[in-house]
Amino acid sequence: YGSGGRHIAALLSEKMGVPCYDSKFLPKEAERHGISQEIINEFKGKTSLLYAIGVMMSEESQDKKRLTIPEKMFHAQKETVKRLAQEGPCIFVGRCADYILDQEAYPTLNVFIHADMPHRISRVLERYGDTEVDVRKRLERKDRNRKTYYRYYTDREWGKYTNYQINLDSGYLGVDQCVRIIVDTVRAMDRGNDTAEQKTDEKNKA
């Protein structure tokens, strides 16, 4: 939290021409799938809008009534992430999407954005201004919540480098350089895949 991950994702979305899904973009996604404004308003402040979308879209949602609300929310979130990924290349911010898509064997590039505390405090103050809650305590609380949530649903350690292909220090590198590194990596991977497919086609023809 406060490392600029969402900002970097938004810039990547614009530069690469692929959709980006996080809380900011979810209302549009809900409307696209025919979910009424009343349902969106009902879930606002209670649960994730991603949960609302998933409940409406998941055929299995009616069989999950015995689950707790958080478990239902994660199930719906998981189904929604998979459905959106099936539509084509996209960017997910958080929501255990790295784990969900890895489990389904989707080709992914998992990126972890981090920064030291001074850079994060500066970014949060610049974006939100002073608040009644101490900024450092707010950052630490957000990190604890994310770490607990991620471990509970994935049995992985949040932020551990082995869970990601790229780990970027946005405080040291800057947002623009982080974007360039990710874009260059994706393009290099695409070129590699194209070359591999071309060699396979030539081999099959031979």
**Largest sheet strand order:** 1-2
Uncertain spans, ≥5 residues at pLDDT below 50? none
Question: What is the H/E string?
Answer: HEHHHHEHEHHEHH
Largest sheet: 2 strands, parallel
Quaternary structure state of the chains depicted: single chain
User: Radius of gyration, rounded?
Assistant: 19 Å
- Share of residues in helices: 55-70%
Shape designation: globular
Give the gist of this structure.
By secondary structure, the protein is mainly alpha-helical.
What can you see in these coordinates?
The chain has a two-stranded parallel ribbon. A two-stranded parallel ribbon has the order 3-4. 62% of the residues lie in helices and 6% in strands. The mean pLDDT is 79. It is mainly α.
Keywords:
two-stranded parallel ribbon, single chain, 6% strand, mainly alpha, 10 helices, 4 strands, 206 residues
Write the topology of this structure.
Elements: H1 5-16, E1 20-21, H2 26-32, H3 37-43, H4 49-57, H5 69-86, E2 91-92, H6 97-103, E3 111-114, H7 117-128, H8 135-154, E4 166-169, H9 170-173, H10 175-205
Parallel strand pairs: 1-2, 3-4
